[in-house]
Amino acid sequence: MTSILLPLVQDSLDANGIAHKAIECDPELADTAAFCEHYDFKPEQSANTIIVASRTDPVQYACCVVLATTKLDVNKKVCKLLEVRKASFAPMDEALKLSQMEYGGVTAFGMPADVPIYVDSKVMECDEVVMGGGNRSSKVLVKPGELRKLPTVQVIEGLAKTG
Predict the structure, then answer these.
(1) For the residues of the chain, what is the DSSP string, one character each?
(2) Residue 94, SS3 per DSSP
(3) Is the pTM of this model over 0.85?
(4) Residue 1 pLDDT more than 70?
């Protein structure tokens, strides 16, 4: 059976034994707000994946997973985790090149092995979360505990702020 997920993402899910459900979506509705409204998901169960880049040479990257209702704390929390003074959201072209995924579909599944994956502890409190499928035409529905099966995942208290 052919997966609707990006092959890189499907391979990661399979290799790590992650129980999930693939959801097909209209590429025009892949952005969080449009997806949640059209497909009847709550923003508080939507987990966004954000690639952060240090402003150091060489650049260090981190993959951060936070709920759509929160804001990633790049300046304090992510910088501390990466042990750098400055970091910011990776430019889109860099994030897409690093992840080998499509804009609007970037997800923690299939990230390069040398990129740490930081998951906000609030994500872990959800029954299920919906995440990108690596492309704009799919999403992954997963119980948050399944994220712990990814080798570089660390659950971080206070990775994101509410409001």
Answers:
(1) ---SS-HHHHHHHHHTT---EEEE--GGG-SHHHHHHHHT--GGGBEEEEEEEESSSS--EEEEEEETTEEE-IIIIIHHHHT-S-EEEPPHHHHHHHHT--TTT--STT--TTS-EEEETTGGGSS-EEEE-SSTTEEEEE-GGGGGGSTTEEEETTSEEE-
(2) helix
(3) yes
(4) no
pLDDT score of 3:
78
| Summary mean pLDDT of the chain | 95
Q: Is the pLDDT of residue 163 over 90?
A: no
Strands 61-67 and 117-120: parallel
SS3 assignment, position 54:
strand
Q: Which is the CATH superfamily of the domain at 7-162?
A: YbaK/aminoacyl-tRNA synthetase-associated domain (3.90.960.10)
d(C-alpha 5, C-alpha 101), whole Å = 11
Yes or no: say if 86 and 57 are a contact pair by the CB < 8 Å rule: no
First to last CA, the chain: 42
CB neighbours of 1 closer than 8 A, spacing ≥ 6? Answer: none
Parse the chain into domains and list their residue ranges.
7-162
